[in-house]
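Could you help me review a protein record that somebody else here produced? Here is the record exactly as it was handed to me:
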Amino acid sequence: MATTNPLQFIQQVRSEVAKVVWPTRREVFLTTVMVFILAALTAVFFALVDIVIRGGLEMVLTTFG
């Protein structure tokens, strides 16, 4: 493994950080809104699946129980 002196390492880190493309404020806002919308839709979907499974299980248990 090649060793790098600390000064070279810091220069390499700075050059790599300079290549990073940071999102704009609008992009961050839109992405955050989309995450909340998709989380809400997922919660509704699983709530409906839970209701259907619970209803089916109650029907089976009342029929055979």
Remarks:
- DSSP finds two helices and no strands in the chain.
- The first helix runs from residue 6 to 18.
- The mean pLDDT is 94.
- Residues 23-64 form one domain.
